Amino acid sequence: MPSSPNPALPAAHTYYQRHIFFCLNERKNGEDACALHGAQQGFDRCKSKVKEAGLAGVGKVRVNKAGCLDRCAGGPVAVVYPEAVWYTFVDNDDIDEIVESHLKNGQVVERLVLPADVGR
Ligand code: FES
């Protein structure tokens, strides 16, 4: 049974240790959205690095696509659960640091955390 990184959650209630969701939203009317700011590249990079590091799978890490997460002003954005930490990123180095530090070792990458007042 996977262990829970969050003491408030019994291990029996978890399936993945950590789950990261990337907003890949694009708007047909051409309005700004994460898809216009490298969201797909970030998702692809994360998926690849998680797999390469042997972190993918049950009891470990899952990387998922998401639609709009309603924090568009900070786009591209991704959120990691169960810690509920929101990130923004600009390049592969940022993604690599999120994978190595947070997804693998549970350490939040403070420099990439989305400020609390960033919304839609
Ligand atoms: S378009 Fe990405 S959070 Fe809204």
UniProtKB/TrEMBL annotation:
It comes from the Bacteria. This is (2Fe-2S) ferredoxin domain-containing protein. It comes from Variovorax guangxiensis.
